[in-house]
Amino acid sequence: MEQGWDPDVSKFFVRIINAIAVTIIWMLTASTVGLYAGLAVPGQYPVWVTILYYSFLIVSFILLARFLRANWRKHHK
């Protein structure tokens, strides 16, 4: 009897783990920079700095979503 997982199932789980890891790293980086530097808290810096921080979060989230979508499409074909 053959041991181990089917290679397709293994590749699928690796894609899932990679997607989760990249998303968690993005979330930790964004929240750490925002909370540690105080950029996420309105009132500590001028309003334009807070707007710039949240704009960067939106743009980086869109890039993250595009990256994840491209990776899933690349392997799905």
Overview of this structure, please?
The chain has 77 residues and is mostly helical. The chain has one domain. The chain contains two helices and no strands. It is elongated, with a radius of gyration of 18 Å. The mean pLDDT is 89.
Give a topology summary.
Elements: H1 7-36, H2 47-76
Helix- and strand-based class? mainly alpha
Q: Total strand count, please?
A: 0
Instruction: Give the C-alpha Rg.
Output: 18 Å
Instruction: Sketch the topology as an H/E string, one letter per element.
Output: HH
**Helical percentage:** over 70%
| Unreliable stretches covering 5 or more consecutive residues | none
β-strand percent reads under 5%
Average pLDDT, to the nearest integer? 89
Largest sheet: none
Shape: elongated
- Overall number of structural domains: 1
Number of helices: 2
